[in-house]
Design goal:
Blueprint: E1 6-10, H1 21-29, E2 35-38, H2 45-57, E3 63-68, H3 71-78, E4 84-90, H4 101-107, E5 116-118, E6 124-126, H5 131-135, H6 141-149, E7 173-178, H7 186-196, E8 200-204, H8 210-213, H9 215-231
Parallel strand pairs: 1-2, 1-3, 3-4, 4-7, 7-8
Antiparallel strand pairs: 5-6
Helix pairs in contact: 1-9, 2-3
Domain AB hydrolase-1: 7-220
Protein name: Alpha/beta hydrolase
Keywords: Hydrolase
């Protein structure tokens, strides 16, 4: 592949497309001019995958999907489109067929699982006063406060939605593990990465919010994926 792919960024639970701000700015500095950040509803895996597919379908040319957190489940489900040439996972879920993010979390509970709280409408929140220590302990208090107050809660039922046909079984993959992740157990990330046999895995001393705390390293991994695809 000689054409540089369009980068489509897919956010996870408790955040929106703006969580990619640092990555977007860094990628733009590196000459990536075709960039999109999906804003998913977080109402079900089917809804989120469909929204992502619609974004990918609007791109005329190859697409590299990059998913953070639950966004990894979304790109796993939506990455089957023919113009998707690769998948980059950023501290992300990568379920197999018949697996859900909730099932994976139950098998190896993360450190901050007690800081999740459902509301009366079925949405699941991170307690505001626990957000910094749970989600982004390597960001400033001010940045964490903004993330906590603007968090986009998913419907709790979304945790139980199973992946059908995982795209990582047929598309090249790259994975970033956050060694200090408190939202997905780091050993779960390592396990999911290992079974995909990614072309490259990196491990950062980072929180779950590695996309915000270490955007340069995340963009380095995206660069690696793009260069690898160009050479293959």
């Amino acid at each position: 592949m000689t054409e540089k792919p369009t980068i489509v960024l897919v956010h996870g639970f408790w955040g929106g497309a703006a969580h990619w701000a640092g990555v977007i700015v860094e990628l733009h500095k590196r000459g990536y001019t075709s960039l999109f950040a999906v804003e998913n509803p977080l109402t079900s895996l089917a809804d989120d995958a469909e929204r992502t597919r619609k974004m990918v379908a609007q791109v005329d040319g190859p697409v590299l999907l990059v998913g953070h957190s639950y966004g990894g489940a979304v790109i796993t489900e939506a990455g089957d489109l023919p113009n998707v040439v690769g998948l980059v996972y950023v501290a992300a879920f990568a379920p197999d067929a018949g697996e859900s993010p909730g099932q994976i979390s139950q098998e190896m509970p993360p450190a901050a699982i007690a800081n999740l709280a459902p509301d009366s409408d079925g949405y699941l929140w991170i307690l505001q006063d626990k957000f910094h220590e749970s989600f982004c302990q390597d960001l400033s208090e001010d940045d964490a406060l903004v993330m906590a107050l603007t968090q986009k809660a998913p419907l709790a039922s979304t945790f139980g939605d199973n992946v059908t046909a995982p795209a990582w079984k047929v598309k090249p993959t790259w994975y970033q593990v956050s060694a200090s992740d408190r939202m997905i157990h780091p050993d779960n990330e390592r396990r999911m990465a290992a079974r995909m046999s990614p072309r490259k895995t990196i491990e950062l001393d980072a929180s779950h919010a590695s996309l915000a705390s270490q955007p340069v390293a995340i963009c380095d991994l995206i660069d690696d994926a793009v260069n690898d695809l160009a050479a293959s």
